[in-house]
Write a structure and sequence with these properties.
The complex is a heterodimer of chains A (about 700) and B (about 180). With about 700 residues, chain A is of the alpha+beta class. Chain A contains 29 helices and 19 strands. Chain A has 3 domains: about 200 residues, Aldehyde Ferredoxin Oxidoreductase,  A, domain 1 (4-Layer Sandwich), CATH 3.60.9.10; about 250 residues, Aldehyde Ferredoxin Oxidoreductase Protein, subunit A, domain 2 (Orthogonal Bundle); about 230 residues, Aldehyde Ferredoxin Oxidoreductase Protein, subunit A, domain 3 (Orthogonal Bundle). The longest helix of chain B has 21 residues. The chains are: A alpha+beta (about 700), B alpha+beta (about 180).
């Protein structure tokens, strides 16, 4: 009997090769790793031998949630999916994708904290989970269907209480740039083809149970209300984007776009979003309209409402209805998504006939969402779109394709910004049809290799945004100086960390941000104004460490790192402070395992160390500083030739970056020379066995190599 | 029913306080003259009465316009910043734009997109904004207010007193294009 609240108590294991299904106790084996990516990294470390490839049956897919999933904690809808990453080049390494939606909660209600899938089914299957009844079902009649049809078919079998996570044709065809998706629009990139390699079309879940909260009901409810009171809009932007009567500040750049006079115009009865005073907790959902933020004011008239994940009041997946696209393109008039998903189609184009935020852009977004979210194509944080533009306009596509294939695309349509061009491109990516479709589906790293383009060349232009190992930057130096750079060194895919950017873009004036930064990271120098960066300071390294650990903590608890952390708030009476302890308070009351902020951060550090250890083990080298934590050339370039730290520039200084890396390694207890954690650091976080294993493989830094 | 003088005062006080709060809820300032109408039975002590009310009610705030007249609002539902925008708008839209641009350049720091002046509470027509920009450009007292245009032809204003041109240009590009392309 699980004595803790929060966790459901069981990890479900499924071996598709021999159709074996069993469970193990979550708390007994994984409590120190919390859940989510913590369980994912642990399973990969324990069960997947070095040298395994993503599509090998021995690879695992770990769909894991945390102790806060399915509770009343705000923004708890995230499922972390960890596996060997198929677009990580030149060799696959561990990484995770994250989907929101309703899957995480349903899994908990069914009684599971994670599903670990290994092996390969003899023919296409899907997994049906109805509480303790887990069955491997024949999926042959679903194979070949898009995500929507497959989801519909399984829902008709299981009932509308089910949540289905499915892959599309891209995943079936082992296109590395593919997703798994649940709840219409909530996807995790990179995972689709790994599921496809196991002949696994989908997982459907019905859970009729609940998640037990260990603490007292009134304490829990009080905490939830407190947490809600700290929430801003999407990405924890705490300042509205236009003056509001109640607000001391406004910032046209934030995602808090709700306001008096702005309506969800396509709702059956248009709804005014209104002034959304922070104290009105029932109006949080009206603050955000991702479509209006990304597509411009034109989107208001097409907005139906916000949609989103379990227990998240922010509703960042904006539902829009554009009737004209049905007649014009033959696609559904309603679509929903957020951020990169919304712009999936439009960002392939360099220009539109009616400007960047006109009707053509809107239609391209609708067509892109329809195709990508049904075929299950992944964008790699929009790198596919940036690659495509560069490849085309640099003449590379024409060179690499035979004339027959090149001429089979309507390039004039493309140049004119005609969204119907996407119907020529997307299905070919999903089907690996032709050279272009196949190459784009590989992801940047393997595309460059296939077309004999040096990775270094791709890292020359800031606008291309390429970082390393087949992946782009994700909130790096352009907006967060050295802190952003340090975060972007760490992962084996794009960093997906929002801890730092959600603070930097929160909309507050710089002096208030610096005040809060002093309190959290020890000095106001931790944050700079965007484009006015200052030399490295120890507080920037502390902020970078905090950011990464909060990301891992959120990914392990199932909190959304796209919405949190919540260290700033819209509340003037709190001096715009949020609360850096909200996660530990939620964790402690939910589970009954009392941990303060530092103790829970230590658990996050253990998880992140395990990620580092896995990377070292599977790269087979301790030389992380030179072979993994690399920086593309564009980071150091300025077109005007200005020196670093000139106001209005975002480029970095080589020596300063070297110092930044030194200080970050110091913060982490990693060896400065190699960037590898020391044995003492592993031991400090309870990872002695990891240290021993790496020691046996000669993958611990030599004490002699350490330089002061 | 006959009321005692003290009851009448209390009744007037309540009316004035309620009026100020009501106007703030509606998103507008209330002028002294408008309040005076609520206290028509004691005009000789009106200034004293208002001062007294401001002392007794923490949320009631006063702003003095350039002509010396006062405007009132309640901080329960209106911020000082919002109230100042309303006052400047009433007084002189050109000064409003200049003040907003300088404050934004100094405090955030950031350039301000021209289109913000079209939304409430600014609520200015495009030609009115355009007229103000031309006047600002011709006025030496506002020589620090400059216009920049992004790659998408969106215009921003900034104050060179607080923001260097290159920094303003980078930020405008970032807010207009960069941020959305780096979601």
């Amino acid at each position: 009997m699980n004595r803790y609240g929060g966790w459901s108590g069981k990890v479900l294991h499924i071996d598709l090769s021999n159709r074996r299904i069993w469970t193990e106790d979550t708390v007994e084996r994984y409590k120190e790793y919390l859940g989510g990516t913590g369980i994912g990294y642990k399973v990969i470390w324990d069960e997947v031998p070095t040298g395994t490839k993503p599509f090998d049956p021995e690879n695992r897919i770990v769909y894991a949630v945390g102790p806060l999933a399915g509770t009343g904690a705000p923004c708890n809808g995230r499922t972390a999916i960890t596996t060997l990453w198929p677009t990580c080049s030149p060799r696959p390494l561990v990484a995770s994708g994250h989907m929101g939606g309703q899957f995480a909660a349903k899994l908990k209600y069914a009684g599971y904290d994670a599903i670990v899938v290994k092996g390969k089914a003899a023919y296409p299957v899907w997994i049906s989970i109805v509480d303790q009844n887990v069955e491997i079902q024949d999926g042959r009649r679903l194979w070949g269907k898009g995500i929507r049809d497959a989801t519909m078919a399984i829902t008709q079998i299981m009932g509308t209480d089910s949540c289905v996570a499915a892959i599309g044709q891209a995943g079936e065809n082992l296109v590395p740039m593919s997703v798994v998706m649940n709840s219409v629009s909530h996807s995790a990139g990179g995972i689709g083809s790994v599921m496809g390699s196991k002949n696994l079309k989908a997982i459907g879940v019905i859970g009729t149970g609940s998640v037990r909260i260990a603490g007292k009901k009134d304490e829990w409810e009080k905490l939830i209300k407190y947490h809600l009171s700290l929430l801003g809009a999407n990405n924890q932007h705490v300042v509205p984007n236009a003056p509001q009567p109640w607000a001391e500040f406004y910032n046209p750049a934030t995602r808090w776009v709700g306001s008096k006079g702005r309506f969800w115009g396509a709702n059956a009865r248009p709804v005014e979003t209104g002034t959304c005073e922070p104290q009105n907790l029932n109006r949080i959902a009206y603050r955000t309209n991702s479509a209006a933020f990304f597509m411009g004011d034109i989107a208001w008239r097409y907005t139906v409402r916000g949609n989103g994940c379990t227990s998240c009041p922010v509703r960042c997946h904006t539902m829009i209805k554009v009737p004209s696209v049905t007649a014009k393109y033959g696609i559904p008039s309603v679509g929903q998504n957020t951020c990169a998903g919304l712009m999936f189609g439009s960002l392939f184009f360099r220009k539109f006939p009616d400007g960047p935020k006109g009707n053509s852009n809107l239609e391209a977004c609708m067509v892109g969402m329809h195709l990508a979210d049904d075929l299950g194509v992944w964008c790699n944080y929009l790198q596919m779109q940036r690659d495509f533009q560069k490849l085309y306009y640099d003449g590379i596509i024409e060179k690499k394709l035979g004339s027959k294939e090149f001429n089979s695309y309507s390039w004039k349509k493309y140049e004119q910004g005609d969204p119907s061009f996407l119907f020529e491109l997307f299905p070919r990516i999903a089907a690996k049809d032709g050279e272009l479709g196949t190459a784009l589906g590989l992801g940047t790293g393997y595309l460059l290799e296939r077309w004999s383009i040096a990775e270094k060349e791709w890292g020359q232009e800031k606008e291309v945004c390429y970082w390393k190992m087949g992946h782009p930057k994700h909130h790096s130096t352009e907006e967060a100086g050295q802190c952003g750079l340090l975060i972007n060194l760490q992962y084996n895919r794009d960093a997906q960390c929002h801890s730092h950017t959600n603070f930097i873009r929160n909309g507050l004036p710089l002096d208030i941000q610096k005040q809060l930064a002093s309190e959290i990271w020890g000095a106001p120098e931790a944050v700079d104004a965007i484009g006015a960066y200052t030399p490295m300071h120890p507080s920037k390294a502390r902020m970078a460490k905090w950011s990464v650990l909060r990301k891992e903590l959120h990914d392990s608890l199932s909190l959304c790192n796209w919405m949190g952390p919540w260290v700033a708030s819209p509340l003037k009476k709190r001096g715009y402070r949020g609360d850096d302890s909200i996660e530990s308070m939620l964790y402690s009351i939910a589970t009954g395992d009392k941990k303060d902020r530092q103790e829970l951060d230590a658990a996050a550090e253990r998880i992140f160390l395990l990620h580092r250890a896995l990377t070292i083990r599977d790269m087979g080298t301790v030389e992380m500083r030179t072979k993994h934590d690399t920086v593309p050339d564009w980071v150091f370039k300025d077109a005007s030739g200005r020196p670093p730290f000139t106001k209005g520039s975002v480029h970095m200084d080589c020596k300063d970056v070297s110092l930044a890396i030194d200080l970050f390694y110091d913060q982490m207890g990693w060896d400065r020379a190699t960037g590898a954690p020391t044995a003492a650091t592993y031991r400090k976080f309870g990872l002695s066995s990891i240290a021993a294993e790496l020691g046996r493989r000669n993958l611990l830094p030599s004490p002699k190599a350490k330089r002061e | 029913m006959n009321m005692k003088p003290s009851d009448r005062h209390e009744d007037t006080d309540e009316k004035i306080v309620a009026r100020i709060r009501q106007c703030s809820e509606e998103g507008r300032l209330v002028a002294e003259q408008e309040l005076r109408e609520s206290a028509a039975d004691q005009p000789e002590s009106f200034e004293f009465l208002l001062e007294n009310l401001l002392e007794r009610h923490d949320d009631l705030q006063a702003l003095t316009a350039r002509d010396g007249t006062r405007r009132y609002y309640s901080s329960r539902c209106m911020s000082g910043a919002y109230a100042l925008i309303l006052l400047h708008k009433e007084e002189d839209p050109l000064q409003l734009i200049a003040a907003v641009v300088r404050q934004n350049s100094r405090d955030y720091p950031r350039p301000v997109p021209l289109d913000i002046f079209g939304v409430e509470p600014f609520g200015m027509a495009a030609d009115e904004v355009s007229d103000c920009i031309q006047k600002l450009a011709a006025d030496k007292a506002h020589a620090d207010i400059l216009v920049i245009e992004t790659a998408t032809s969106r215009k921003f204003l900034y104050s060179a007193q607080y923001l260097e041109p290159a920094h303003a240009a980078l930020l405008a590009e970032w807010y207009d294009v960069g941020q959305a392309n780096n979601p």
